[in-house]
Write a structure and sequence with these properties.
With 163 residues, the protein is an all-alpha fold. Helices cover 76% and strands 0% of the residues. The longest helix is centred in the middle third of the chain and has 37 residues. It is globular.
Length: 163
Protein backbone atom coordinates (compact mmCIF):
# COMPACT_ATOMS: atom_id res chain seq x y z
CA UNK A 1 0.00 0.00 0.00
CA UNK A 2 1.38 3.39 -0.90
CA UNK A 3 2.11 5.91 1.82
CA UNK A 4 -0.46 8.32 0.38
CA UNK A 5 -3.15 5.65 0.51
CA UNK A 6 -2.26 4.74 4.09
CA UNK A 7 -2.34 8.41 5.06
CA UNK A 8 -5.70 8.91 3.34
CA UNK A 9 -7.18 5.85 5.06
CA UNK A 10 -5.90 6.92 8.46
CA UNK A 11 -7.13 10.47 7.94
CA UNK A 12 -10.54 9.22 6.85
CA UNK A 13 -10.72 6.95 9.90
CA UNK A 14 -9.75 9.73 12.29
CA UNK A 15 -12.29 12.03 10.66
CA UNK A 16 -15.06 9.48 11.03
CA UNK A 17 -14.10 8.85 14.66
CA UNK A 18 -14.02 12.56 15.39
CA UNK A 19 -17.42 13.08 13.84
CA UNK A 20 -18.95 10.16 15.72
CA UNK A 21 -17.54 11.46 18.97
CA UNK A 22 -19.65 14.58 18.42
CA UNK A 23 -22.73 12.43 17.74
CA UNK A 24 -26.24 13.66 18.29
CA UNK A 25 -28.88 12.53 20.67
CA UNK A 26 -30.62 9.23 20.29
CA UNK A 27 -34.05 10.00 18.88
CA UNK A 28 -35.66 6.73 19.92
CA UNK A 29 -38.00 7.04 22.86
CA UNK A 30 -37.51 4.48 25.62
CA UNK A 31 -40.05 1.70 25.63
CA UNK A 32 -42.53 1.83 28.47
CA UNK A 33 -44.81 -0.83 29.74
CA UNK A 34 -47.80 -0.63 32.00
CA UNK A 35 -46.96 -4.07 33.39
CA UNK A 36 -43.43 -3.12 34.46
CA UNK A 37 -44.32 -2.27 38.07
CA UNK A 38 -46.20 -5.54 38.50
CA UNK A 39 -43.35 -7.65 37.16
CA UNK A 40 -40.82 -5.72 39.24
CA UNK A 41 -42.85 -6.34 42.38
CA UNK A 42 -43.20 -10.03 41.55
CA UNK A 43 -39.44 -10.64 41.23
CA UNK A 44 -37.54 -8.29 43.53
CA UNK A 45 -34.76 -10.78 44.24
CA UNK A 46 -33.76 -11.03 40.56
CA UNK A 47 -33.83 -7.28 39.96
CA UNK A 48 -30.79 -6.49 42.09
CA UNK A 49 -28.43 -9.02 40.44
CA UNK A 50 -29.64 -7.99 37.00
CA UNK A 51 -29.05 -4.35 37.84
CA UNK A 52 -25.57 -5.16 39.17
CA UNK A 53 -24.73 -7.08 36.01
CA UNK A 54 -25.99 -4.15 33.95
CA UNK A 55 -23.76 -1.76 35.89
CA UNK A 56 -20.77 -4.08 35.41
CA UNK A 57 -21.47 -4.23 31.68
CA UNK A 58 -21.74 -0.46 31.54
CA UNK A 59 -18.37 -0.08 33.29
CA UNK A 60 -16.83 -2.55 30.84
CA UNK A 61 -18.23 -0.60 27.89
CA UNK A 62 -16.91 2.63 29.37
CA UNK A 63 -13.45 1.02 29.61
CA UNK A 64 -13.76 -0.15 26.00
CA UNK A 65 -14.78 3.35 24.95
CA UNK A 66 -11.74 4.78 26.73
CA UNK A 67 -9.44 2.26 25.00
CA UNK A 68 -10.88 3.19 21.62
CA UNK A 69 -10.58 6.90 22.29
CA UNK A 70 -6.95 6.53 23.37
CA UNK A 71 -6.14 4.57 20.20
CA UNK A 72 -7.81 7.17 18.01
CA UNK A 73 -5.96 9.94 19.85
CA UNK A 74 -2.58 8.37 19.04
CA UNK A 75 -3.37 8.41 15.33
CA UNK A 76 -4.91 11.86 15.47
CA UNK A 77 -1.84 13.26 17.28
CA UNK A 78 0.45 11.74 14.66
CA UNK A 79 -1.58 13.31 11.86
CA UNK A 80 -1.58 16.69 13.56
CA UNK A 81 2.18 16.47 14.00
CA UNK A 82 2.50 15.90 10.25
CA UNK A 83 3.50 12.26 10.58
CA UNK A 84 2.07 9.66 8.29
CA UNK A 85 0.71 6.66 10.17
CA UNK A 86 2.80 3.64 9.37
CA UNK A 87 1.89 -0.02 9.54
CA UNK A 88 4.14 -0.27 12.59
CA UNK A 89 2.33 2.61 14.30
CA UNK A 90 -1.04 1.03 13.55
CA UNK A 91 0.17 -2.35 14.81
CA UNK A 92 1.38 -0.77 18.06
CA UNK A 93 -1.92 1.05 18.45
CA UNK A 94 -3.87 -2.17 17.89
CA UNK A 95 -1.60 -3.99 20.35
CA UNK A 96 -2.28 -1.37 23.03
CA UNK A 97 -6.00 -1.50 22.30
CA UNK A 98 -6.05 -5.29 22.53
CA UNK A 99 -4.38 -5.13 25.95
CA UNK A 100 -6.93 -2.57 27.17
CA UNK A 101 -9.78 -4.67 25.80
CA UNK A 102 -8.41 -7.68 27.66
CA UNK A 103 -8.41 -5.76 30.94
CA UNK A 104 -11.96 -4.58 30.27
CA UNK A 105 -13.14 -8.13 29.53
CA UNK A 106 -11.62 -9.40 32.78
CA UNK A 107 -13.89 -7.02 34.71
CA UNK A 108 -17.04 -8.42 33.08
CA UNK A 109 -19.07 -11.36 34.27
CA UNK A 110 -18.28 -14.46 32.25
CA UNK A 111 -21.80 -14.98 30.94
CA UNK A 112 -22.30 -11.40 29.81
CA UNK A 113 -23.07 -10.47 26.19
CA UNK A 114 -20.74 -7.54 26.66
CA UNK A 115 -17.87 -9.73 27.86
CA UNK A 116 -18.30 -12.07 24.90
CA UNK A 117 -18.45 -9.17 22.44
CA UNK A 118 -15.32 -7.59 23.94
CA UNK A 119 -13.42 -10.88 23.74
CA UNK A 120 -14.45 -11.45 20.12
CA UNK A 121 -13.42 -7.92 19.15
CA UNK A 122 -10.17 -8.25 21.10
CA UNK A 123 -9.29 -11.35 19.05
CA UNK A 124 -9.84 -9.42 15.82
CA UNK A 125 -7.79 -6.46 17.08
CA UNK A 126 -4.95 -8.84 18.00
CA UNK A 127 -5.07 -10.33 14.50
CA UNK A 128 -4.91 -6.83 13.00
CA UNK A 129 -1.96 -5.96 15.23
CA UNK A 130 -0.06 -9.03 14.02
CA UNK A 131 -0.96 -8.49 10.38
CA UNK A 132 1.55 -7.15 7.89
CA UNK A 133 -1.25 -4.88 6.65
CA UNK A 134 -3.19 -3.64 9.70
CA UNK A 135 -5.33 -1.31 7.59
CA UNK A 136 -6.65 -4.21 5.51
CA UNK A 137 -7.09 -6.33 8.63
CA UNK A 138 -9.17 -3.55 10.19
CA UNK A 139 -11.30 -3.38 7.07
CA UNK A 140 -11.89 -7.16 7.00
CA UNK A 141 -15.47 -8.38 7.32
CA UNK A 142 -14.80 -10.34 10.53
CA UNK A 143 -13.22 -7.30 12.19
CA UNK A 144 -16.09 -5.06 11.14
CA UNK A 145 -18.71 -7.61 12.26
CA UNK A 146 -17.26 -7.91 15.77
CA UNK A 147 -16.86 -4.12 16.01
CA UNK A 148 -20.50 -3.64 15.03
CA UNK A 149 -21.61 -6.27 17.54
CA UNK A 150 -19.61 -4.65 20.34
CA UNK A 151 -21.02 -1.24 19.45
CA UNK A 152 -24.57 -2.66 19.60
CA UNK A 153 -24.22 -4.46 22.95
CA UNK A 154 -22.58 -1.43 24.55
CA UNK A 155 -25.35 0.79 23.24
CA UNK A 156 -27.78 -1.43 25.18
CA UNK A 157 -25.91 -0.44 28.36
CA UNK A 158 -26.18 3.25 27.52
CA UNK A 159 -22.59 3.66 26.31
CA UNK A 160 -22.17 4.83 22.73
CA UNK A 161 -18.96 3.54 21.19
CA UNK A 162 -18.07 3.27 17.55
CA UNK A 163 -15.30 1.13 16.17
Amino acid sequence: MKRDQLFALALAGVTVFALTACGGEDTEAPATSASAPASAAATPQTSAPAAAAGEDDKKVCEAVQKAGDESKEVLFDALQAGKEPTAEMLSETYTDMAAALGKAAEAASTDSKVANAVKEFQAQVEEAAESSDPVAAGDAAAFQKTATNLTAVCKETGVDINF
